[in-house]
Amino acid sequence: MTQLSRTGKSPSLDRQVRRAEIFASLHRLGDPLLLPNAWDVASAVMIASAGAKAIATTSAGVAWSLGVRDAADLGPDRAAAVIERITAAVPVPVSADIEAGYGPDPDAVAATVTAVIRAGAVGVNLEDRSGQDGAPLFEPAKQAERLAAARAAADRLAMPLWINARTDAFLAGTGPEAEWVDAVLERAAAYAAAGADSLFVPGLTDLAAIAKLAAGPLPVGVMVWAGAPTVAELASAGAVRISLGSAIAQAAYAVAARAAAELLSDGTYNTSAGGIPYDEINNALAPGSSQADSARYGQEADRI
Q: For residue 98, what is the domain's CATH number?
């Protein structure tokens, strides 16, 4: 029988709720949450070891690591299995990229959210891309229903889940470009009413547009890549969350491709220089290493 803590919850649920509260507190104006995105246990452990206060997964990286194309229906079971392994290995909060919820209907979204919460996630990204060529985005009202289902699923599990409502309005590029910001503000209002905690707008790095969105109904998160505005510039514009998306995974696979090409064509190995030492990675993945890190992180988190 599971022993209950003084709150009436299991110790593991207590710990997850505490991580959810920490994760929420890290979304701050002027001091945004910086999220280097992971795709497996080793990448997550290395990112946490580098000092990240939280980790978000990249659906593209997870899918590629499992031999699946991004946006090709990775599915809730495989997504949750990766989350479960990552949350067991790192001492920091973990947010799950669940793409569009692995199904168009609210019930599918609720099932996916339930699966990743049970796997240990304290946040999710839920996007409004429909996958339909003629109408690439769900209508705001339809996406609001899906977000409400996500919130209800989290509430049933007594989890204060951070819902990062992703809109692909800038990636899809539907309608006149001059109207994109206003269209996103309309979506933000509907998403906030449905229970979303923040708005994620990948493809947007224009500082003036970010500032306009940041003055709207939801805190704003953005995705960055080489050449994008700096963290300081994005923070000044009002972004509270800055993530790298699939950029780290892409860079890692680029090293694999370049190192292989160098070996096969030149017979040399210089591309593989600068890697993390073998023992450092191996020891970071040793059984029990995350427990010590978790205790240390818990002490630091109390000061956040």
A: 3.20.20.60
